[in-house]
Amino acid sequence: MPAGTKLDLGQSCIRFKNLEDLSLDGIDEASARAPLAAYVERYLVVRPRPLFRPRPAAAIVAAPRTFETSQNMGVRATEIRKGQVIQMNGDLWVVTEYEHKTPGNLRAIINVKTKSLTTGSTSAMRLGSSDVLEVAYLDRKKAEYLYREGAAGNYIFMDVESYEQFELSVDFVGEKMGYVRENTQVEVVFHGSTPVGVELPPQVVLQVKETENAVKGNTTSGVKKDATLETGLKIKVPIHISVGDQVKVATETGEFQGRAN
């Protein structure tokens, strides 16, 4: 019953604002006690029904969480964006290019190019606006690179939260480890419990281990020379860079970005 409602009991009027606040106007307590008590007991002394019925603790624990057990979700082709990961034919593919065209009064055409996260192969698709793709839910974890098992072995990482160690193969990480030195952190991307990628920062700082000495008096601008960094990565650097210098390198292109020290 809404707050502020008036209830007429003969010549008496009961006015209340809520269940805990009842006031009587124009009647004495003795004459109103019996009928009022009966009415309140029948209609007013109730507890508001909850919006939902709480589940027992055991049921809450047993019930699956959406983002923990359901690793994928269906998304219309018009909502796909570059960088998302979709699942097709039992493999995970990252969207590398996305183009949405609407030629005149014709139906929309969506051109999507993808790259396999496991094999590196590429694929192209032409979709309609009503097509649905299965987008993979990915989890990113901070991991510290510890060491490599031998000269051609796997790379050993440690989850910085759980301290659990895991290894990634050379084929999996590709050339990315050239930008990662020991005891530094990266983001490892997981699909469920399976690692599917390593994400690097846009720029890293590495030390020059080998490079030719600059010729004295050579001040030609734009001239560069080969340099090998502490991770084994080979890049081009300006002639004024020397062994021991800390240099900034773009992880996307491998280009020299400047001296860090």
Could you explain how this protein is built, in words?
A hairpin with a 5-residue loop joins strand 7 and strand 8 (122-128). This protein has four domains: 6-44, no CATH class; 67-136, SH3 type barrels; 139-199, Nucleic acid-binding proteins (OB fold (Dihydrolipoamide Acetyltransferase, E2P), Beta Barrel); 203-259, Nucleic acid-binding proteins (OB fold (Dihydrolipoamide Acetyltransferase, E2P), Beta Barrel). The protein has helices spanning 29-44, 57-62, 66-69, 170-173; strands at 6-9, 12-18, 21-25, 72-76, 85-88, 91-101, 109-116, 122-128, 132-136, 139-148, 155-159, 165-168, 185-191, 194-199, 203-211, 224-229, 234-238, 246-250, 256-259. The strands form five sheets. The chain has a five-stranded antiparallel β-sheet. By secondary structure, it is mainly beta. It is 11% helix and 45% strand.
List keywords for this structure.
flat, disordered N terminus, OB fold (Dihydrolipoamide Acetyltransferase, E2P), 45% strand, 19 strands, SH3 type barrels, five-stranded antiparallel β-sheet, 261 residues
